Amino acid sequence: MSLHLLLLLLLLSLGAPSLLQASVHEYRSERFMSKGNAFVFHGGSEGIYSSSPSDNFSSDSDSLSSFIRFEKITFRRPEEASNTSSLPIHAVLFEVEDRENIGGSAYGGQRAVCCTSDLAKLGVCSHGEIIHHPSSKDSSWPQVFGVSFVENDLSATLLTRSIQITRTGMYNLYFIHCDPALKDLVVEGKTIWKNPGGYLPGRMAPLMYFYGFMSLAFVLLGVFWFSQCARFWREVLPLQNCVTLVITLGMCEMALWYFDYAEFNETGVRPTVITVWAVTFGCIKRTCARVIILMVSMGYGVVRPTLGGFTSKVIMLGVTFFAASETLELLENVGAVSDFSGKARLFLVLPVAVLDAFFIIWIFKSLSATFKKLQTRRLLVKLDVYRKFTNALAVAILVSVGWICYELYFKSKDVYNEHWQNAWIIPAFWQLLSFSLLIVICSLWAPSQNSTRYAFSGSSGDSSGEFEKDDYTLTLIKPSPVPSHEAKSVSEARSLPDQEDAEEDLEEDKRE
C-alpha cells in the first residue's frame, strides 16, 4: 500500500548524502598522513553561522555565540624520536572560501603546504613553516597556531583556546606538521564546534525543525486514518491494516529523529540509544512498505487470496533488505562518518541498491500481471483504483529521477561543500515525496462502508461487486417468465467462465 515508501525511500538509500558531523570532535590517538611535503590530519569540517563580534567573548558564558574551542589537544611522539626538539605542529583553521590562501609554489611549480627551500630563498616564508596568506575578507584569518616538542619530551599540548566565528561559512580544521622525524606522531583531545542555536552542525540544524514538522504531519494523517478505521471497523481490510502499520511506524520514526537531533543540539554528542531506535524504526518502515507494495502489486487480497509459493520468497527478500539497510544506516548515523572509508560505505550501499532494484522489477512485473487479470475479469472498480495507484507511482518515479539528476548536479558543483546551507533540502525532499505518496494511498484505500469492493471474493469469479450493480439495474424492469429448461442453460453458461477462472487461479497457485 505504501508503494510511495518503497520506491522513494529506496532511491533515498541510493542517493541520500550522509550528514553526520558530530559537534564534539574527539581524537583518540589519530595518526597523521603524508600529503605532498606535509603530514596532515583532518580535524573536522562544519558549517557554522556567524555571531555578533564581542570584545569580552567567552565560550563558557556566551550561549548565543558561535565558536570553535580546542580542549586538551595533545601530540605524542615515539620515544626514539624524543632526543631532539622538533619543528612546530600547527592547527590550521580556515573558511572554505579561503582554501587558496593555504599553501603556495615557487615560480608557478607544484603547490606545497610546507615552506620549501626555494620559497625560503625568496623570503616568502621560513623553512619548515606552513605557507598561508591573509584572507581578503578578514586579515586575521586563516587561524594558524601551534606547539613544538622540546628535547626529551614525549608530548606537547596546545593551549586551550576558543575562536569566535563572526562570518558564516564552512570551516575546516587541519593539524599539519613538516617534520619527517614526526612521521609516527599521533593526536589526542577534542574540539567543540557551536552554532548560535546549539551544537548541531549548520547543515543539520534545519533538519531538527523539519522532523518536528513531519512528526506533526504524521500525527494529523494518523488522526484521520485511525478515525476512519474506528468508524468503519467492521469493513477494515487486511491491506488497510498494513497502511495503519506504516503510518504508525512513520510517526515513531519522525518523533525519534526529532528527539535525536534535539538532544544532539543540546549536548553536542549524538545520543546513541535514540539514534539506534530511530534508524531501526525507519528500516522496519521501509522494509514493511516494500513488502506490502509488492503484495499489493501481486494482487494479494484483491484478485488472489494468498501469495502461493511466493510467500517464503517475499519474506526472505524482506528480511535480507532489512539486514542490509539496518547495517548501512547504523554505520552512517551512529558514530562519525570518518569511522569507515568510502570503499567500506560503497560495499554496504551496493547490496541495498541491488535489493531495491530487485523490488522495483518484481513490483512492476506483478502490477502488469494484476492489470491483465482485472481487465480479463472486468473488475472495473478495482481496476480504477489500481490505475490511479499506478499513475501516482509513475509521477513519483518521474519526479524521483529528476531529483536524482539534480542531486548529481548539485554534488558535482559543490565539491567543497560551499552550498552547505541548502544541503538539508535533499533528504527532506525524499521524506516529503514519500509522505505525499502515502497521502495518495490513504485517499485511495481509506476505510469506508464500501471497503469490501476492493477485497477478494471467491464467488462469481471475484466479480460480485460488478454484478451487484447489474442486478440492481435489472430489478427495475419487470422480468418476463423464462422456461425452466432455458433458465438452466443460462445458469450453466454463466457458471462456465467462472469455473475456468477458478481453475486458472488454482493452476497458477500450484505452479507458484
| Residue share in helix | 40-55%
Order of helices and strands: HEEEEEHEEEEEHHHHHHHHH
Sheet with most strands: 5 strands, antiparallel
Number of domains: 2
Q: What is the CATH class designation of the largest domain?
A: Mainly Alpha
Looking at the overall shape, the CATH architecture of the largest domain is: Up-down Bundle
Q: Would you tell me the structural class of the helices and strands?
A: alpha+beta
Number of strands: 10
Region (Disordered): 476-512
Subcellular location: Membrane
Protein name: GOST seven transmembrane domain-containing protein
Biased composition (Basic and acidic residues): 485-497
Can you put this structure into words, describing what you see?
It is a multi-pass membrane protein. It comes from Brassica campestris (Field mustard). Keywords: Membrane, Signal, Transmembrane, Transmembrane helix. This is GOST seven transmembrane domain-containing protein. With about 500 residues, the chain is an alpha+beta fold. It has 2 domains: about 20-55 and about 60-195, Jelly Rolls; about 200-455, Rhopdopsin 7-helix transmembrane proteins, CATH 1.20.1070. The chain is about 50% helix and about 15% strand. The protein contains 11 helices and 10 strands. Strands 1, 4, 7, 8 and 10 form a 5-stranded antiparallel sheet that branches. A 5-stranded antiparallel sheet has the order 2-3-9-5-6, with no helix packed on it. Strand 2 and strand 3 (about 40-50) form a beta hairpin.
